[in-house]
């Protein structure tokens, strides 16, 4: 019963099965006969496997040598694929697996056949597709390459190969791409392999004197058992140069604006302010001289004196707004404190200003005036747009940076959708440009109904350390 069951199972397998002992076929199933086109496979049992059973004389030597390797004891199992042909000469592709067994105490070989012709055709189609893909990659103006985790280039398209400084098979990627003797400081290989998303970065290649924008993602390369990443690098030098020109122009405009404000502040304070003050003194003296004159002349002179006094105060206020004297005389901390005190007095807001580590820190004039302008603009937004009742300003110096945070409990907004006149009125672009002028970072966090928080970080210039500190 068991023999019949096993025979039925073997007869219906999709694999062709054979057993060879002393070079003769001692077992062949029906599927073996079908694969090779034999009408009567049973008549082949007992025949020489390599001389009569296996029908393709062109590949029989390969078939025989594999079996000799098994019988030599070097392998217990071997799998391979090879071209073959049927008894009628029809070519096809077979996949074979053979292993060493014993039959009645003597060595024999048990093997299985699979017709893999369709897979071979698919493989050829994939090869053609890969060739098309290679041509497309070589036609790209972007640099496309694949790097292993041990800094070896395993693929480079035409554009990338043309830029390499050495032979791809002999040198590491950092030597080929940048002429360095050790991995690049900004290499993101480790981060790419643990990231679930493609990574994007920009870097300057000192060797090529070019800027590149690179997208990197982990990939699996056939035949390579190490982690690999695919990178696509685009030359953005022209864009960077254009951005730098725009940035330089923006910085120049800011500096010109500050110079003009400084000039107007001095003109208002030293010229117009002094003239108005002199006029007020003259009116006061005239009022004293005419104090005994009948009528309302003394009263009208007194009113004129008050008007002139108001004009002097307005000029001083305008002058201080254009170029705060407290900033020049006392420094950034006191200038901010002064503005906070005025905001509390005029608007009734609760303002909490704290500073840490600023003692002994001397910022450059550009750093002080631009940080001060950011505070001015932020407080202006609180008054005009936020509807806040509380404001917090924190200024912290921790070498090598100064960090400033400004928060409020006002209406807030959505920075991602901030476009048009409303955000122009917030002055965010101007604040960001001022921070950029100082080579710093400007971040804004806000949500409707949840207030706004600005964070500014700027480096402390080394050349400012030797200057006398303003307390």
UniProtKB/TrEMBL annotation:
User: Which subcellular locations apply to this protein?
Assistant: Cell membrane; Cytoplasm
Q: Matching SUPFAM superfamilies, A to Z? A: ATPase domain of HSP90 chaperone/DNA topoisomerase II/histidine kinase (SSF55874), PYP-like sensor domain (PAS domain) (SSF55785)
Alphabetically ordered keywords of this record:
4Fe-4S, Cell membrane, Cytoplasm, Iron, Iron-sulfur, Kinase, Membrane, Metal-binding, Transferase, Transmembrane, Transmembrane helix, Two-component regulatory system
UniProt entry tagged with the keyword Methyltransferase = no
Q: What reaction gets catalysed by this protein?
A: ATP + protein L-histidine = ADP + protein N-phospho-L-histidine
Membrane topology is:
Multi-pass membrane protein
Enumerate the spans annotated as Histidine kinase domain.
371-462
Q: What is its main location?
A: membrane
Q: Which CDD domains match?
A: HATPase_UhpB-NarQ-NarX-like (cd16917), PAS (cd00130)
Q: Does the keyword Transferase apply?
A: yes
Q: Which InterPro entries match?
A: HATPase_C_sf, HATPase_dom, His_kinase_dom, PAS, PAS-like_dom_sf, PAS_fold, Sensor_HK_TwoCompSys, Sig_transdc_His_kin-like_C
Q: Which cofactor does it need?
A: [4Fe-4S] cluster
Entry's EC annotation: 2.7.13.3
The record ties this protein, via Gene3D superfamilies, to: 1.20.5.1930, Histidine kinase-like ATPase, C-terminal domain, PAS domain
The domain of life is: Bacteria
Any one Pfam family here would be: PAS
Q: What does this protein do?
A: Member of the two-component regulatory system NreB/NreC involved in the control of dissimilatory nitrate/nitrite reduction in response to oxygen. NreB functions as a direct oxygen sensor histidine kinase which is autophosphorylated, in the absence of oxygen, probably at the conserved histidine residue, and transfers its phosphate group probably to a conserved aspartate residue of NreC. NreB/NreC activates the expression of the nitrate (narGHJI) and nitrite (nir) reductase operons, as well as the putative nitrate transporter gene narT.
Protein name (database record): Oxygen sensor histidine kinase NreB
Please report the organism this UniProt entry assigns to the protein. Geomonas propionica
* Lineage of the organism: Bacteria, Pseudomonadati, Thermodesulfobacteriota, Desulfuromonadia, Geobacterales
């Amino acid at each position: 019963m068991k023999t019949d069951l096993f025979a039925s199972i073997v007869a219906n397998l999709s694999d062709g099965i054979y057993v060879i002992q002393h070079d003769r076929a001692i077992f062949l199933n029906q599927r073996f006969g079908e694969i090779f086109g034999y009408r009567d496979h049973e008549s082949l049992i007992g025949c020489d496997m390599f001389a009569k059973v296996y029908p393709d004389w062109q590949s029989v030597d390969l078939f025989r040598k594999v079996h000799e390797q098994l019988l030599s004891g070097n392998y217990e199992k071997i799998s391979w694929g090879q071209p073959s042909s049927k008894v009628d000469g029809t070519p096809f592709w077979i996949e074979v697996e053979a292993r060493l067994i014993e039959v009645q105490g003597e060595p024999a070989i048990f093997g299985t056949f699979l017709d893999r012709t369709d897979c071979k055709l698919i493989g050829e189609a994939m090869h053609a597709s890969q060739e098309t893909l290679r041509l497309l990659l070589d036609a790209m103006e972007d640099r496309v390459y694949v790097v292993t985790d041990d800094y070896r280039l395993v693929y480079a398209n035409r554009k990338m190969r043309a830029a390499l400084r050495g032979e791809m098979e002999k040198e590491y990627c950092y030597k080929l791409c940048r002429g360095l003797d050790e991995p690049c400081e900004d290499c993101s290989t480790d981060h790419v392999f643990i990231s679930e998303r493609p990574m994007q970065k920009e870097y300057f290649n000192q060797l090529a004197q070019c800027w590149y924008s690179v997208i990197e993602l982990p990939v699996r390369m056939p035949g390579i058992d190490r982690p690999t990443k695919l990178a696509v690098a685009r030359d953005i030098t022209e864009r960077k140069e254009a951005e730098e020109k725009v940035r330089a122009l923006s910085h120049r405009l800011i500096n010109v604006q500050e110079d003009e404000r400084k000039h107007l502040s001095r003109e208002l304070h030293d010229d117009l302010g002094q003239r108005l003050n002199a006029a007020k003194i003259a009116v006061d003296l005239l009022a004293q001289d005419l104090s005994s004159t009948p009528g309302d002349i003394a009263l009208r002179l007194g009113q004129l004196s008050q008007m002139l006094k108001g004009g002097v105060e307005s000029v001083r206020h305008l002058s201080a707004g254009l170029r705060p004297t407290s900033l020049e005389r006392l420094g950034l901390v006191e200038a901010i404190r002064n503005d906070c005190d005025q905001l509390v007095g005029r608007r009734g807001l609760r303002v909490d200003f704290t500073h840490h580590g600023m003692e002994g820190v001397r910022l450059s004039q550009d750093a002080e005036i631009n940080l001060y302008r950011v505070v001015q603009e932020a407080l202006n937004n609180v008054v005009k747009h936020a509807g806040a009742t509380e404001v917090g300003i924190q200024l912290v110096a921790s070498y090598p940076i100064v960090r400033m945070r400004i928060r409020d409990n006002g209406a807030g907004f959505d920075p991602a959708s901030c476009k048009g006149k409303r955000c122009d009125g917030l002055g965010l672009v101007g604040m960001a440009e001022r921070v950029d002028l100082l080579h710093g970072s400007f971040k804004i966090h806000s949500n409707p109904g949840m207030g706004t928080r600005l964070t500014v970080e700027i480096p402390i210039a080394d050349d400012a350390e030797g200057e006398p500190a303003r307390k």
